[in-house]
Amino acid sequence: MERRHLQRPLLTLLSAGAMLALGACAQTGTMASQDVSTLSPLQLVGLTVQSADLTRTLGQVDDLILAPDNRVEQVIVGTGSPMYPTPHRVVVNTADLRYAPNRQAVILVGMTPTEFAALPMTGSNDRMLSMGPTAPMPGGPMTRTGAEPTNWTGATVRR
């Protein structure tokens, strides 16, 4: 008879422990993320941009706008079909984005997908190229037209 009385508190204690463990698992279900401006440009270009609820893919990171200290200030996101028949590129501040390493994606946290869709389109040739000399090199026929790819020189230097 005394053995039955010992089993009951033990069973209650084990049940309470299991419930606490399940609660701890539920709390860790939030997605780990980090600031986009601290990442290297090579890590960001090509990643998908998803809505905060992770149900929609809004586009992908096409290009970046860097600060003089090589930190990412703004992200140029390219969206296309089915929303737009032609490529549509918009600029998003890094404060509105978080990087989710477990999804290998950038999450749009500072605005809704509707607000994202309402952002003004950037020009198709708006590419940043400011890290080199603006005059053509002697003997070289290259002139700057604004359509050249972004010069990433020095963007991957460790901080």
TrEMBL record:
Biased amino acid composition, Polar residues: 148-159
Q: Specify whether Signal is a keyword of the entry.
A: yes
Q: Which residues, if any, are the signal sequence?
A: 1-26
Disordered: annotated segments:
136-159
Q: What keywords are assigned to this protein?
A: Signal
Q: Which Gene3D superfamilies match?
A: PRC-barrel domain
Q: What is the name listed in the Swiss-Prot or TrEMBL entry for this protein?
A: PRC-barrel domain containing protein
Per the UniProt entry, what species is this protein from, by scientific name?
Azospirillum doebereinerae
